[in-house]
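Allow me, if you will, to draw on your knowledge of protein folds for a short while. I have a record of one protein: its chain in single-letter code and its fold written as discrete structure tokens. Kindly check, if you would, that the fold set down in the tokens agrees with what the sequence suggests. Thank you for your consideration; the sequence and its tokens are set out here:
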Amino acid sequence: MYCQKILIRMGIFSRSSISRKPNETMRLFVTTFIGVAFGFLIGVSFPTLSLTKLNISSSLLPTIDLSYIDHRTLGLSFSSMRNRTGSTRPPDLNETTQIWAPSNPRGAERLPPGIVAAESDFYLRRLWGLPNEDLTSTPQYLVTFTVGYDQRKNIDACVKKFSENFTILLFHYDGRVSEWDEFEWSKRAIHVSARKQTKWWYAKRFLHPDIVARYDYIFIWDEDLGVEHFNAEEYIKLVKKHGLEISQPGLEPNKGLTWQMTKRRGDREVHKVTEEKPGWCTDPYLPPCAAYDNHSCFACLGSCVLPDLIFEFEMLTELRFWWMQNDLVHGWGLDFALRKCVEPAHEKIGVVDSQWIVHQTVPSLGNQGESQNGKAPWHGVRERCKKEWTMFQTRLANAEKAYFRAMEVESNSTTH
């Protein structure tokens, strides 16, 4: 009896649902059609309508960034206008909502100036907490070393000559990075690795003026320098004291080949001029008798950096060296052009004698070359260095001629 009642009730349910099905199906169909049509109309009108113009209450759209949608619409119209006119200046159609700040860096003109950060740094930050609590200190100086792991003990000795007021940046030309963690200081250093590259290659690509602008001085060193008689903080004091804008530590005169100008003198703090072999200097105030720091080590104060092996410089203005050639990676010949960065050069370029170093001339970078025609790898590297020197001299001379020629043409056009 119980089962019969269940079957009867199921039968009644089935019959009643079948009887109501046509009406419900029609109602569902009509509702769906109206919804689709309404959505289609809204979608078609969306590119030309702003949600703010629809006067929809913000409480109904709590998660939509209306200003973002408006600016996307404005961006489309600006792009189309630029395509028609060829101008990079936005149209003066809606100056209250359109942003165009020509003082911003190139490519950021449409951002509000208050959100633009044109400069950065190498300060390491945390992944947690508040950003304004990340930095317990902000080093004033940056020191970089172009290194191979075989010279780790020498680099360890060098790093200990730089206080905690220096950010440490290592450029690895041999690809060995993790092994350096045997030194405690390496764990707080920044490591960049690219096999068989020179420090000029790294500098051009990782020391952009906007990245290093926060630092007062930058030391860019090689790996084969003896620093027993060198202290970075004392060196900076002497550079400031004597008004040197380009300088280098004195070189131990009995170690390796070097110009007279760069050899250490034991009776003074700094020297700016010297005497070379007869006939070598056509002008006592020109290289290599003055206004010269050679490519074994040098420092630049005041934005010009052009050596081969070492340099330090103060960030007074943008780094002019950064704008040099991309393909000349060894830097040979640049030292003779230092005088073009300061005026008068024979007064602002000098050698710091009381803070001196030893250039050990370890041919580690030369060994990164390739053996050709049965010659040792360093032969090819040395040949490339010599070729770059000639190429740089030719390019600089041609660039100067082209500049003065253009200035002469411009001057003549304005006077006629």
